[in-house]
Amino acid sequence: MKQALTEKEIVRKIDSGGILTPKGFKAGGIHAGLRYSKLDIGVILSDSPASCAAVYTTSHFQAAPIKVTKDSITKEGKIQAVIVNSACANACTGQRGLDDAYKMRSLTSQAFNVAEHYIAVASTGVIGEFLPMDKIETGIQSLVPGKMKGNAEDFQTAILTTDTVMKSSCFAAEINGKTVRVGGTAKGSGMIHPNMATMLGFITTDANVPPQHLNTALKEVTDITFNQITVDGDTSTNDMVLVLANGEAGNEPLSPEHPEWSVFVQLLKESCESLAKQIAKDGEGATKLVEVSVIGAASNEEARAVAKQIVGSNLVKTAIYGADANWGRIIGAVGQANAYVNPDLVDVKLGSIEMLKASNPLIYSEEEAKAYLERDKIEISVNLNVGSGSGMAWGCDLSYDYVKINASYRT
Amino acid sequence: MKQALTEKEIVRKIDSGGILTPKGFKAGGIHAGLRYSKLDIGVILSDSPASCAAVYTTSHFQAAPIKVTKDSITKEGKIQAVIVNSACANACTGQRGLDDAYKMRSLTSQAFNVAEHYIAVASTGVIGEFLPMDKIETGIQSLVPGKMKGNAEDFQTAILTTDTVMKSSCFAAEINGKTVRVGGTAKGSGMIHPNMATMLGFITTDANVPPQHLNTALKEVTDITFNQITVDGDTSTNDMVLVLANGEAGNEPLSPEHPEWSVFVQLLKESCESLAKQIAKDGEGATKLVEVSVIGAASNEEARAVAKQIVGSNLVKTAIYGADANWGRIIGAVGQANAYVNPDLVDVKLGSIEMLKASNPLIYSEEEAKAYLERDKIEISVNLNVGSGSGMAWGCDLSYDYVKINASYRT
């Protein structure tokens, strides 16, 4: 008898897929004049109100659009339209900013004939400036289905700031005898000139999942994907990841008790992890994707903390930029992490090159290590050898261009 | 009747003073061949065993010399000689490294005729390499009083790595009718090519303070001085601040119950704060000293956390390097800090320029702000308006040179 497939084996990647691959979604993006020439307002529209779950920035300063989106989702846990603008974050804008975000919601409600509490609002761009509401209004009206070209690329482009590439992912699996698809897009390029620091993620799925369970799955998955990337350690006022599940796949409602729940979670995880890595690789000034894998920790949480400490260390990042196999900096970061570490037991590998075994330096070829570090994906593995916890984190190197991008003026 | 002077008014700066200004100390430094041509081994010697207190790195990987110094201090709380080498950190060097650090202590004991447990050992330099013990031995022997020139500058130079300047400070006050002096030196330039990340501080005083009380004062002071500087957020395996109090000022023993205890603490604080600022200003690639002052926090601890978050933000650091008055990045950092923040009440000032009042953006002159940011000392003030806690932190900007210094090879 054949052994049962793992969740990872059941889930398959759809190479050219994205947010419109799941059934029953439309999307578009237009140029409303918030930016010089690029698309700057985008919309995702579900054929019917979809189950919705979202996670938000932990910043004390949550931007106005986040407050409005929370207000919408709280009502029924359903969202049908997501309206997003770039160029202006509408953060630290006081009561006027909050009024503007609600106005953006009501304009979308009227234009798309969708109840206000079925609308999510997101913004990304400069902190402390007000939305140009006349442009927002004209823009939203020109997005109405029929008027807009309506493709995933326009939406994906409209949400970008200093990103150099669009991000998208799509995965599918059979669940309850039905094909279920999860598509996603995201923006975020690090901390970003000028204050456009936001990470936004939008995931669509045709799975049938009630809001409360969708929420459970999203929280579980973001902890090991989006929350494990770092470009420079700064958290934006506008970060948001939002999942819409419209049920058009026709599967019976999923919950943690369903035998195929773990397949759905894996599907969501693959989508989010793919987007998270695309963001890390497109970090400001980045020349390399860095993937850190930690095993042997006291818990998964501690493994993730150690991985994120390594990938976030300026010293590790500059060493990787310079292709310098400086494992002392990896140890420096591990030494600082909020985790149980036995200083006599740590192993460190760069790709397959062993550098430290039970905290003792090994002899390795500097040439081989340097050659490895000149690749465009760098893998660092650490075994703490104190437990069975594991975790990963993703980031990028720190280059001259990072300083250049972030030292320049806002104008 | 005249009002009593504050501690700050009682303490006076001695401009050309340093570790040899307090009575009863000698110091020296020599070139032992650990570095190409610079001085690389230094010693501080007290005429008699001095009360000693020390604070160490919180890294899980404490280097061998730290273990040896702890072992010495634990015996009687007294130290007479401090031996320091640069170029090699003797960290992550296993049992052989620990044996070498003990050997360095015993060589110093023999050369200076001082009991082993009166000797502190410190190292700074590359992680994961062994000390060249033959050079260490010859070096220590040539440091013996009479053979060495014996001045503070030689010691201050011998402990440097990528630092571009020596650091020293000296303050004095009348305590218990006697003149008490506190002198200090430190090294540390950020995270430093290659792994020479260490911050070392050595403070001498002729005050009479028993070890346990000296320890209390040092912990209180380091929390608001050395622990509030950051160059790039990385913590070394070798950090150490050590105070020697030999009692030669002739004052009666000080303790927290003594009416002039607060004057002694202020004396120590001024010395440590001066050194901390010198380190921040000499951070790798730094062009500016950044001083962040936070008031109105729920507690002093929270004020310090917010100040350190701001001064440690890569985005704030690059904006300051680029003279960009990007207050949104300051808000971004405040938003992330581990402190109670009411997002509607925050004030932000750059120098005397008000940028944000009760979390609402103010109109200010971009030209004036840019001109301010082109100075070599930048002051950022934040009022959280939720309590009476206050705190400060110091750091530097993030420049191309930081990347250059840290991306280059270890050779």
TrEMBL record, chains A, B:
It catalyses: L-glutamate + acetyl-CoA = N-acetyl-L-glutamate + CoA + H(+); N(2)-acetyl-L-ornithine + L-glutamate = N-acetyl-L-glutamate + L-ornithine. GO terms for biological process: L-arginine biosynthetic process; ornithine biosynthetic process. The record marks 124-125 as: Involved in the stabilization of negative charge on the oxyanion by the formation of the oxyanion hole. It is an enzyme of class 2 (transferase). InterPro entries: Arg_biosynth_ArgJ, ArgJ-like_dom_sf, ArgJ_beta_C. It is found in: Cytoplasm. GO terms for molecular function: L-glutamate N-acetyltransferase activity; L-glutamate N-acetyltransferase activity, acting on acetyl-L-ornithine as donor. Pathway: Amino-acid biosynthesis; L-arginine biosynthesis; N(2)-acetyl-L-ornithine from L-glutamate: step 1/4; Amino-acid biosynthesis; L-arginine biosynthesis; L-ornithine and N-acetyl-L-glutamate from L-glutamate and N(2)-acetyl-L-ornithine (cyclic): step 1/1. Substrate binds at residues 161, 187, 198, 284, 406, 411. The record marks 197-198 as: Cleavage. Keywords: Acyltransferase, Amino-acid biosynthesis, Arginine biosynthesis, Autocatalytic cleavage, Cytoplasm, Multifunctional enzyme, Transferase. Its EC number is 2.3.1.35, 2.3.1.1. Transmembrane segments: none annotated. One of its GO terms (cellular component) is cytoplasm. It comes from the Bacteria. Pfam families: ArgJ (PF01960). The active site is at residue 198. Belongs to the ArgJ family. Catalyzes two activities which are involved in the cyclic version of arginine biosynthesis: the synthesis of N-acetylglutamate from glutamate and acetyl-CoA as the acetyl donor, and of ornithine by transacetylation between N(2)-acetylornithine and glutamate. HAMAP family: ArgJ (MF_01106). Heterotetramer of two alpha and two beta chains. This is Arginine biosynthesis bifunctional protein ArgJ. It comes from Mesobacillus persicus. The lineage of its organism: Bacteria, Bacillati, Bacillota, Bacilli, Bacillales. The gene is argJ.
